[in-house]
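quick q for whoever's on today - can somebody do inverse folding on this one?? i tried earlier but teh output was garbage lol. tokens:
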């Protein structure tokens, strides 16, 4: 038989919520950048009537976006996550915390 314990969370560190949300946003940004890179490659290949030129120029724009876009998404996600963490911390402290039941 397992014992049931009750834990109470009375606050969170805003920077940890920010790091989580920033990382999640960065992963989403990487997906968007990959799709942008593929779209740019196909469009340039169609407009130049050359797969090689489209591939070369499309990938160069795509590689820059694959590096830059996740960083931008991380920064925006981190700022929003910090705000969320700060709000959650205030609510938890004023509401007396949240109780969780855990089993061993």
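ok took a stab at it. sequence:
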């Amino acid at each position: 038989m397992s014992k049931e314990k009750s834990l109470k969370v009375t606050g969170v560190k805003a920077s940890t919520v920010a790091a989580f949300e920033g990382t999640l946003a960065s992963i989403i940004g990487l997906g968007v950048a990959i799709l942008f890179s593929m779209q740019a490659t196909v469009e340039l290949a169609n407009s130049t009537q050359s797969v090689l030129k489209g591939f070369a120029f499309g990938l160069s724009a795509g590689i820059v976006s694959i590096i830059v876009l996740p960083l931008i998404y991380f920064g925006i996600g981190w700022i929003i996550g910090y705000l969320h963490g700060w709000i959650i911390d205030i609510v938890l402290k004023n509401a007396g915390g949240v109780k969780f039941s855990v089993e061993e």
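fwiw The longest strand covers residues 4-9. also Helices lie at 14-48, 51-95. so keep that in mind when u check it
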